[in-house]
Amino acid sequence: MQRKAIYWGWYVVFGAFVLMGLNHGTTYCFTIFVKPITTDLSWSRSAISFAPSITMIVYGIGGIFSGRLLDRIAPRWVMTFGAVTLSAALILTGFVREPWHLYLTYGLLGGIGTSCLGAVVGSSTVGKWFQRKRGLAIGIASIGIGIGSMILAPLVGYAVKNWGWPWGFWILGGLVLVLGVVTAQTLMGKTRPEDYGMYPDGEAPPSHPEQPPPPTTAPGVPMKQLLRDSQYWILSLCFTFALVAQISAFVHQTAFAVELNIDLMQAALLPGYIGLASIGGRFFFGWLSDRLPDAKYAACLGFVFMAAGVAVLLVAANMNHMVTYALFFGFGYGCIAPLMPYLLADRFGSLVLGASYGLLTFFVAGIGGSAGAIISGMIYDRFGSYTAAWWMDLTLLLMAAVLVATLKPSHLKTNKP
Question: Is there a contact between 241 and 368 (Cβ–Cβ < 8 Å)?
Fold first, then answer.
């Protein structure tokens, strides 16, 4: 009996898994560098925090263009450019000696690279290859972000503690260059199933000749109609609030832990704990989205878990507390990567999924993410602690949970198992 070929969409899932793991695992490691750079170069927290803020702004703006490119060309070229650019940014960051050097390398160049290598390109690409299994597929691909954090955080922590912070950036740059380019070129060469006579989810061709062939264009609403829909902007606001809290915690959590007299190597494990918890979260929320009458309830639950994690930060006094925070926060944070493109595709289709997701990322990451990093740094410089920043994060997450629950049902009819 002839073996059935594996549907190409699952190769795309694996490619996105690796690339998103490299991209986001790398950027989430920045928290490990905050305290060492402060000590070595005598820079303020707000000065250092401005670099990832620039990264998020450029990531948001770049996501608009990379998303539009993704609707026109194969993702391999967008992702290869992203890998080369991000690698160059990381390697050059190891040589910085003035704040403006950091803003140009890690901020500007790194933002360009991440916008072509991260969730906008990865999740949008996966979303085009699946319909019934979209939540599961995007959830599996985004698990790479958690795996990347788990693997890279202890590696970077060891390098920074034993050889100095520049080596942490150089090691990351080398890994992104080699693994990023190879994965993009070998697995991400196809655009969408309709272009190759395939059906989403790897469905078999219809058995009855009167049934139509695969559509030549993907289903969904055009961009102009999407931009006039208030649901798109409510969705943007929900995830913007969540990203303020996410990046605020991610950038400053290690420095906060060190100031609780926790050893740097232990504190450097926090992104790994978050990554570990997010693996379960990504799979769970992706799986749950395919089974709920509306995936917005999965997003609401995820934001509540993140809020619970931030609440732990407000009373944290030792490493056990920090691990508890990381597990709650990480599990909830696992909802963001699969549910942003899922809710977009569920409500507006996949016709302009790349462009619409890119624009959404501009507001969510470019505005929300950049604000979270710099505002928390300014709060620390003003008050000498992160308490007010954690209260801000908690409030925004609870607001996001309430707001996402108000989304109206999808205009599109989707097939759920």
Answer: yes
Beta bridge partners of 349: 220
**Close Cβ partners of 173 (under 8 Å, ≥ 6 residues apart):** 86, 87, 88, 89, 90, 91, 94
Task: Please answer whether residues 261 and 377 qualify as being in contact, where contact means their C-beta atoms are separated by less than 8 angstroms.
Answer: no
Residue numbers of the domain that contains 65: 8-197+217-404
Residue recorded with tokens 């290690």: 254
- Does residue 164 contact residue 39 with C-beta atoms inside 8 Å? no
DSSP track, 142-203: HHHHHHHHHHHHHHHHHHHHHH-HHHHHHHHHHHHHHHHHHHHHHH-----GGGGT--GGGP
CA dist 65 and 70 (Å) reads 9
Whether residue 316 contacts residue 322, with contact meaning beta carbons closer than 8 Å, is answered with yes
Q: Is residue 202 part of a domain?
A: no
Tokens of 47: 């000065």
Helices (H), 71-133: 75-93, 99-102, 110-115, 119-129
pLDDT in tens, the chain (417 residues): 445 677 888 888 999 999 999 998 898 888 889 889 988 998 988 899 889 889 888 887 887 788 777 777 888 899 999 999 999 999 999 999 999 999 999 999 999 999 888 777 887 788 788 877 777 787 788 788 878 888 898 899 899 989 999 999 999 999 999 999 999 999 887 877 776 677 676 666 555 445 555 544 445 555 566 677 777 888 888 888 998 999 899 889 988 999 999 988 888 888 888 888 988 887 788 778 778 878 888 889 999 999 999 999 999 999 999 999 999 999 998 888 778 777 877 776 655 455 666 677 777 777 777 788 889 989 998 998 999 999 999 999 999 999 988 888 765 544 443
> Is 207 inside a domain boundary?
no
In a domain, 120, yes or no: yes
**CA dihedral in degrees (162, 167, 168, 171; nearest 10)?**
-120
Q: Please count the CA atoms within 13 angstroms of the CA of 22 that sit on its side-chain side.
A: 34
- For the chain, what is the domain count? 1
361 inside domain: yes
Burial class (CB in 10 A: 0-12, 13-18, 19+), 114: buried
Report the CATH number that the domain containing residue 163 is assigned in CATH: 1.20.1250.20
Task: Please tell me the distance from the alpha carbon of residue 22 to that of residue 148, in angstroms, as a whole number.
Answer: 6
pTM: 0.72
